[in-house]
Structures are given as C-alpha cells and as structure tokens.
Amino acid sequence: MLSISSNLDSGNIEVVKADNPSDIQVEVRKDTNSDFLQYFFFRISGVEGESCKVTIVNASETTYPFWKEYNTYASYDKQNWFLVDTEYDGKQLIMEFDAVHSSIYLAYYPPYTYEQHLELVAECQSHALCKHSVLGQTVQGRDIDFLKIGFDTKYKKKVWVIARQHPGESMAEWFMQGFLKRLLDDSDPVARKLHQEAVFYVVPNMNIDGSILGNLRSNAAGANLNREWLNPSLETSPEVYHVLCKMDEVGLDMCLDVHGDEEIPYNFISAAEGIPNYSPKIAKLEKDFIEAWIRNSPDFQDKYGYDKDAPGTADLRICTPQLAERFGALALTIEMPFIDNHDLPDPMHGWSPQRSEKLGSSVLNPILEVVKDL
C-alpha cells in the first residue's frame, strides 16, 4: 500500500495526490507561524520495484525558488544519502527514480535530527575538556544546549561557534559534528594547540524547535533568529536572548555562525565590512582567516559569495555584524551550498553530510592561524 508520511523529526510535506507511484503530488507547507516556505523531508512507503515520479506542485511559490541546478537528496536508511534526478519546469519540482526498497526518504537536505543532536552533546560532555550546561529554554520549552570546551586563563581567547539559526540549513549541524569531534580528539595536534590558546563556547543548534518542526528559517514563534540580534525577546526569540546574554557575560574574541545558502553553489564567508566601527585589525583578521582556510581545504573559496556591505550600512539585527560591532571582534558567517560545491562536484552525493563534516573539521586550521592575533 502506497503511503506518504511527514510525521517525522524534521518532517515537512502535505499530500495532494498519492494513489499511484508514477504520479505522486505533494506540497511543501509553510514554516510554523511564518510565511517562509522551502524545506521538505518525508517518507514514501510501499513502492519497492516501482518507477516513481514525485512532484512538488508549489515549488515556484517557495521563498528561494533556485531549483534549476538542484537535485533532491534520498535515502533508504537515513544514513547513506544520494541524489535523485530532479527537474524544475518553472512551476513544479519533479523527481523521478526507481525504488529499490519499500520505503524511501526524500529531503531538501539530509536532516540532522534532535536525537542526533542529543547524542552529539552527550558524546562531547564525556570529554574532560568539555562542560555542558543549559542556557535557557526555546519557545516550546526545549533546552538550549551549550558546550564550554577548555579551561579558562586570563590569556586565552574566547572563541564562539554557533549553528543552525535557520533550522532547515541542517548541513550546519553536520558541520558542527565534524568540528566538535576534531576539537575533542586528543590525538589531533591542531586541536591540542588550540586548547592552549583558546576556550571554545559552542551552541550546536540555535533553533531546536524549528529543526524538529521541519522549518526552513523560523523558530516556533515564527521569528527569523538571524534578524533578532539587535533586540532579542524572551517571548519570540529566547534562543538569541539567552545566547547573547552568555556572550555578554563571558566575552567574545571570535564567532563563527554556520549556515547554508540556497542559491550559491560554493562554500564561502560573509564578513562584517559594513559595521560602523569596522577597523583595519578586523579587516586583516578576516583576510588572514579566509586565506588560511583556502590553503587548508579545497572545498573552500572566496571568489563567489554575497555582495559586501558598503561602509556603515550593515544590518545590526544580523548576528555577524552585531557581534563584530558589539565586541570589536572577528565575526564571520559560514555558508555552505544546498546545490553542491561547483569547484568539486559530486554527481552521486552532492554536498553531502560527510562533506559538511569534513569542512567543519577543516575550520580548526584557520582558527589556529589567527587565534593569537584576536
């Protein structure tokens, strides 16, 4: 029997028609209490041996309809993800594949589930250098997990790494998994050296509610957390409120805010050029960090990215410019692709979770190269 379910952690889809595997029609639903519309994740069952055609009928109505080069991610076991042929006709997104097993999962990007998040936090806290605490609760009352890695001295720099303000950008938490596992690897010389130079303050998932709900950009109250940093609210953006309070309490010399981008098929950095107090020191730190990462990872580049803000025009509601201005610090937004990295394309797996992890692991090298100058 053919069935379609989005009753999953991170699930999002609404069924329009599901009586024939060769003509399945679905719609992406809006984010909770918001008009953002993009992320999907669902399971189709009862299709073993069938030639399937799945159409997202409202693809042209999505927030970021950059579908021309996009291919959908699929998996039979939620462990191994591969791309399925996907076509956009200007209105609808059409996926076609021959099903090998009864059930198949389709996703805008492979989810990083709440259970995975809890397992990652539990694994990290077992390390002697890592202390876990809860900063507060989300809109729906879930814990905001916080990891402090390293022991304080007055000489050590304070490095913050946060991810997944936009929950549908799940590659950000795959990135965090790679970053944290290497940072807590006692046999890694780069990690060992970093522990001598810095204490790390890590929020692996800023938007737990939105992640579970299958949202692209919003929390449970409908707030876009990356527009809440100027004046966060306990009612609508407690996730930002509690994290910013902790930053003010302990200080900040550097922050990486990890995201994904729907349109640009490359990994890149968005910096803080437009803040009122942009300084030559920050400019040099940005340049040194970017150049160091290019040397250390062929998956990173700086030719393609967002247009730079003109001097004094930065939106201080956004995390990176707010923190750069507030602390006079190096603050950077990391963007990864949904489409793939066109510098090193992988036709079978695209920009996979494994590649996101590898990029997260590689970021330790540029951090080490700039940490003494922060």
Average residue-wise pLDDT: 97
- Under the CATH scheme, the architecture of the largest domain is 3-Layer(aba) Sandwich
Overall structural class, as computed from helix and strand content, comes to: alpha+beta
- The CATH topology assignment of the largest domain is Aminopeptidase
* Main β sheet profile: 9 strands, mixed
Give Rg in angstroms.
21 Å
The number of domains is 2
Instruction: Provide the β-strand percentage band.
Output: 15-25%
Main sheet: strand order? 1-4-9-6-7-8-5-3-2
User: What is the β-strand count?
Assistant: 16
Helix content: 25-40%
What is the general shape?
globular
Order of helices and strands: EEEEEEEEEHEEEHHEHHEEHHEHH
Any idea what the CATH superfamily of the largest domain is called?
Zn peptidases
Spans of at least 5 consecutive residues with low confidence? none
Q: How far is the first residue's CA from the last residue's CA?
A: 60 Å
Count the DSSP helices: 9
CATH class of the largest domain: Alpha Beta
Give a short overview.
This protein has 374 residues and is α+β, with helices and mostly antiparallel strands. 26% of the residues lie in helices and 24% in strands. 50% of the residues are buried.
Structural account:
- The protein is of the alpha+beta class.
- The protein folds into two domains: 3-107, Immunoglobulin-like (Sandwich); 114-373, Zn peptidases (Aminopeptidase, 3-Layer(aba) Sandwich), CATH 3.40.630.10.
- Helix content is 26%, strand content 24%.
- The chain has nine helices and 16 strands.
- The protein has a nine-stranded mixed β-sheet, with no helix packed on it.
- Helix 2 (171-183) crosses helix 8 (353-362) and helix 3 (189-197) crosses helix 9.
- The mean pLDDT is 97.
